[in-house]
Structure formats: C-alpha cells, structure tokens
Specification:
The chain is an alpha+beta fold. The chain is built from 11 helices and 8 strands. A 6-stranded antiparallel sheet has the order 1-2-7-4-5-8. Strands 3-6 form a two-stranded antiparallel ribbon. Strand 4 and strand 5 form a beta hairpin. It comes from Mangrovibacter plantisponsor. This is AraC-like DNA-binding protein. Keywords: DNA-binding, Transcription, Transcription regulation.
Length: 270
C-alpha cells in the first residue's frame, strides 16, 4: 500500500545516474510538494530520460550568467529531457496529481508538455535569479518557500482527493464499479472530474502509479521477485507486467533492477 504522505516519486535517470554529481534530495510533504532536489551534470551529459510519475516539476538551471527555469508535466512514457552539461540544477517535484495555482494553465495542458517558467508564472524573474545565486541547497529551498509562501495550491475536488488516496491505498489496482458505489457517481462523472483536476485520466494515473510502486519495490532492500511484484500490483501475470513496465520506462524490470543495484549517486534524505 502506498501512503500518499510518504510516497516518493522516483526518476532513475536523475536519482541513480553516473552522469550527475552532488545529487541532494529533501522531502517536504507540505504545500503539495513531494521533495526538493539538486544536481550538477557532468561534461558529457546533454539529456536525461524521464518516466511517468504523475508529477509536475519546476527545474531551475542555476547558471549564474543566464539562469532559467522550466515547468514540466508528467510524461506518458519515457522521454529525454534536455539538460546542459556542466550546469547546476535545482528542482521541485510536486506530489502526484497536485498542481500549484500559480501555474497559469489548466491541468490538461501539463502532461507531455514543458513551459518556460516566466511564461506561466509572470513576474518571477527575481525568484530565478535569487535561486541561481545560492550555492547552498538548503538556502535554495528557503528562497523558493519564501517566494511562493503566499501562493496557493489549486484545490482539487473532494472526489479527486478521495480517488488519489484510494488509488494509492490499492497500489493503483482499482475497480471502477466499487468506486461508483463508494462515492455515488457514475464512472463517466468520476473520469471527467478526475481528468479536470489532474490533467490525466484515472486509468493512466493508476497505471503510472503502479509502475512507480514497482520501481520502489525493485530498489528497496529485500527486493521481491518480479512474479511477486506483478501479483502484488494486480497484473494477470508476469509477462503483462514486464510489457507494461517496458512500454513506460524503456527498459525491462530486470534491467531496471540491475541498474538500480549499481551504486551511482549518494541520495540524501535531509
């Protein structure tokens, strides 16, 4: 069972890559933020492969000569994101299904898209500059929190909040008929409300979550077998699990397990 307050979306290419240096991470779990992170790219890296996680990220390029920031919606399958070699980055990852109100877009505009921070958060140039000037990760977090302290989160409906909790509680393995009985809405209304609030369908959200949970099961101590993971997540058999996992991440679960078992960067949980 995934606890919504403790679930940590994982991006292997950012959090377990030999081509990133000085990776740091700090959980937040308030104001809709899952965690902050920072890293420096090495001199040969020009992109990182990201995978679905149901999250919105804000990523600051802290090049002091020309700092920039971009906002990313979740991808629907693995996709390269452009990075600049030798640059220092600072990021904010929001909790799955959460969208801050200061992003001047509707949720359905986010998946598989990226935007210039200043285009959708006008008047925030000073925030970019201030974060870029801070060498210390903790200070960058402080600047962001203070700059955005008066900004609200977009309020999802109580139905969507309940659905996210239920999807996580059931490891992404939900039955729409049971949800209809629980909340007294038709499946059509459930899907419409959820899509309007999160930008992705309930089916896709559940599918992405199952893959993220599978990765967390693979990377943690006492790693269960792929058969056990498939069963735990409600797949009919291991082959269906492997096919879906590879479609979303670009690699098989077995290859992911090998990659994650190799020490790469030091993760810090401050």
């Amino acid at each position: 069972m995934a606890n919504p307050e403790q679930f940590l979306p994982f991006q292997p290419a950012l959090q377990n890559s030999h081509q990133l240096k000085n990776y740091q991470q700090q959980m937040q779990n308030c104001r809709g933020i899952s965690h902050f992170y920072s890293f420096t790219t090495d001199d040969n890296l020009n992109n990182a492969l990201v995978i679905p996680d149901n999250c919105i990220d804000i990523l600051f390029d802290c090049n002091t000569h020309q700092p920039t920031a971009r906002v990313y919606g979740t991808v629907s399958r693995y996709k390269p994101v452009e990075l600049i070699s030798g640059h220092r980055y600072f990021g904010i990852r929001f909790m799955p299904g959460i969208m801050p109100d200061y992003i001047d877009l509707i949720p359905e505009d986010m998946p598989d898209h990226e935007y210039n921070f200043l285009d959708i958060i006008p008047g925030a140039a000073s925030v970019i500059e201030d974060i870029a000037l801070r060498e210390n990760f903790t200070q960058q977090i402080k600047v962001f929190n203070e700059s955005m302290a008066n900004k609200a989160l977009r309020q999802s409906s109580q139905i969507t909040q309940y659905l996210i909790t239920e999807v996580m509680r059931n490891n992404g393995n939900i039955k729409i008929g049971e949800l209809e009985k629980d909340i007294g809405y038709s499946s059509r209304n459930i899907y419409r409300i959820f899509l309007n609030d999160t930008g992705v369908s309930l089916k896709l959200f559940s599918r992405f979550l199952r893959m993220q949970i599978a990765i967390n099961m693979i990377r943690h101590p006492g790693k269960p077998s792929l058969t056990d993971i498939a069963t735990e997540l409600g797949f009919s058999d291991q082959s269906h699990f492997i096919k879906d996992f590879k479609t979303l991440t670009g690699v098989s679960p077995r290859k992911m397990k090998v990659q994650l078992s190799q020490p790469a960067v030091c993760l810090s949980q401050a």
